[in-house]
């Protein structure tokens, strides 16, 4: 993963003072996901280039909790500029981002000719231009084609930015906009990200024509955080630590609303012995474990690595024996019959079915509704009609989704399953509902018909 910063200001080697990195050395920095290097491929009076190279170790990357099993190794993280590169930039150029230069303070305060190259960046030429051009950059974004035998264009561009700006401004633009373009932060986005956004966007973000898109993407589409950030920008007031911890007009994230809806459905059917099928990293399991009305909890997933993550999240090795006895994690494929899953009060398939290839879905239906036959089944899945409200989203909500259904398609499927396997079913909405597209998540509660 590479980024280069070039100047023709004379003497050009003053760039080393502005970046606080000597042009005659190779500087290395340990990062949570690999090693960052700063080096100077050219450094003379007329032209000086500093290169930030991030060598990403795939084994240090944590795939998203709902990613496919090999995503830790099969991904674009080692080469496409992203929040990984943004984090490296923040660490190695900390003083330069603040505009501080002990040796050249006057130069740090004035614009100088700059050229920035990012050879591989996820995005489109149009979006790159819309983000950087209003900031004073001349933008050249060249689409990167696939190999000739494959043909067509990829989703990556080779970006060249030229302009006269302060080095601090240039670095802050990159710090914010690289993860915005990638649109997939590698770490959990907490409320303190608001302060980072406003600090790095000081002087330019409030007037940017794409500030709404920037706030939403930078804050990982967490609507409450983006709303807070935009309100603070509008008010033109600095964010305090207390404000960053207490978002204005906080609305619970969709994941939280989804869990609450599942818990409400479990309470409705008086379930005490519960299956979490496709449990992933344990997001729902940790909530179930805290509620003592659930006397037996089983998390099932096909990925052993994911189950290890769930075990760590549940702190199974530290729980008292009485608590530990309530919880089991088992490795199994939901498309195969497994006697260990029989006889439970309820089973939850929370954001699972859309990860199953459609030709394999009947096998899951048979295994869960026919063979395991719990007293109730709770299924949640995205409502594809709502996707139009996610700015910048093309295709499905996740790269591993095999399909996403409309409300009518989900209702038809649920009705067929209920009739085929002896259940009644009710459909519910989860999340803020729109009058035309409905809510972002749809939930089906199946209850077995008593003999």
From TrEMBL:
EC number: 2.1.1.386
A biological process term (GO) from this entry: regulatory ncRNA-mediated gene silencing
Domain Methyltransferase type as annotated: residue spans: 275-377
A molecular-function term among this protein's GO annotations: RNA binding
Mitochondrion recorded as keyword: no
InterPro entries assigned: 3'-RNA_MeTfrase_Hen1_bac, Hen1, Hen1_N, Hen1_N_sf, Methyltransf_12, SAM-dependent_MTases_sf
Catalytic activity, reaction form: small RNA 3'-end nucleotide + S-adenosyl-L-methionine = small RNA 3'-end 2'-O-methylnucleotide + S-adenosyl-L-homocysteine + H(+)
Top EC class of this enzyme: transferase
Domain of life: Bacteria
Cofactor (UniProt): Mg(2+)
Alphabetized UniProt keyword annotations: Magnesium, Metal-binding, Methyltransferase, RNA-binding, RNA-mediated gene silencing, S-adenosyl-L-methionine, Transferase
Domain named Hen1 N-terminal: residues: 1-233
Family designation: Belongs to the methyltransferase superfamily. HEN1 family.
Name of this chain's protein: Small RNA 2'-O-methyltransferase
Organism name: Actinoplanes italicus
Lineage of producing organism: Bacteria, Bacillati, Actinomycetota, Actinomycetes, Micromonosporales
């Amino acid at each position: 993963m590479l980024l280069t910063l070039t100047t023709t200001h004379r003497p050009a080697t003053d760039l080393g003072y502005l970046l606080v990195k000597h042009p005659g050395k190779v500087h290395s920095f340990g990062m949570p996901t690999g090693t960052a290097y700063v080096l100077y491929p050219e450094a003379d009076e007329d032209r000086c280039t500093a290169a930030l190279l991030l060598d990403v170790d795939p084994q240090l990357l944590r795939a998203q909790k709902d990613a496919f099993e090999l995503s830790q190794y099969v991904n674009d993280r080692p080469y496409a500029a992203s929040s990984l590169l943004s984090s490296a930039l923040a660490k190695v150029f900390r003083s330069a981002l603040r505009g501080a230069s002990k040796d050249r303070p006057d130069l740090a305060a004035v614009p100088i000719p700059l050229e920035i190259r990012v050879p591989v960046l996820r995005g489109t030429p149009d979006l790159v231009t819309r983000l950087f051009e209003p900031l004073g950059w001349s933008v050249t974004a060249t689409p990167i084609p696939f190999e000739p035998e494959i043909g067509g264009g990829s989703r990556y561009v080779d970006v060249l930015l030229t302009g006269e700006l302060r080095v601090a401004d240039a670095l802050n633009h990159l710090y914010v906009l690289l993860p915005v373009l990638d649109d997939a932060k590698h770490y959990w986005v907490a409320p303190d990200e608001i302060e980072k956004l406003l600090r790095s966007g000081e002087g330019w973000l409030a007037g940017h024509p794409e500030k709404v898109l920037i706030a939403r993407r930078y804050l990982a589409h967490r609507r409450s955080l983006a709303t807070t950030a935009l309100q603070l920008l509008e008010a033109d007031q600095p964010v305090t630590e207390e404000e960053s911890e207490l978002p204005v007009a906080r609305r619970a994230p969709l994941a939280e609303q989804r869990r609450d809806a599942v818990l409400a459905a479990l309470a409705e059917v008086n379930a005490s012995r519960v299956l979490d099928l496709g449990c992933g990293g344990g997001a729902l399991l940790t909530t179930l474990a805290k509620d003592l009305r659930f006397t037996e909890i089983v998390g099932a997933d096909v990925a052993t690595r994911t189950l290890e993550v769930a075990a760590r999240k549940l702190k199974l090795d530290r729980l008292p024996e009485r608590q530990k006895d309530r919880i089991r994690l088992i490795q199994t494929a939901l498309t195969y019959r497994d006697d260990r899953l029989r006889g439970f009060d309820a089973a939850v398939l929370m954001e699972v079915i859309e990860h199953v290839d459609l030709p394999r879905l009947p096998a899951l239906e048979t295994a869960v509704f026919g063979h395991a036959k719990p007293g109730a089944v709770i299924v949640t899945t995205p409502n594809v009609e709502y996707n139009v409200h996610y700015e910048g989203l093309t295709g499905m909500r996740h790269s591993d989704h095999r399909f996403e259904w409309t409300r009518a398609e989900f209702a038809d499927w649920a009705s067929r399953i209920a009739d085929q396997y002896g259940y009644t079913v009710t459909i519910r909405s989860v999340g803020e509902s729109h009058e035309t597209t409905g809510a972002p998540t749809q939930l089906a509660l199946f209850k077995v018909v008593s003999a």
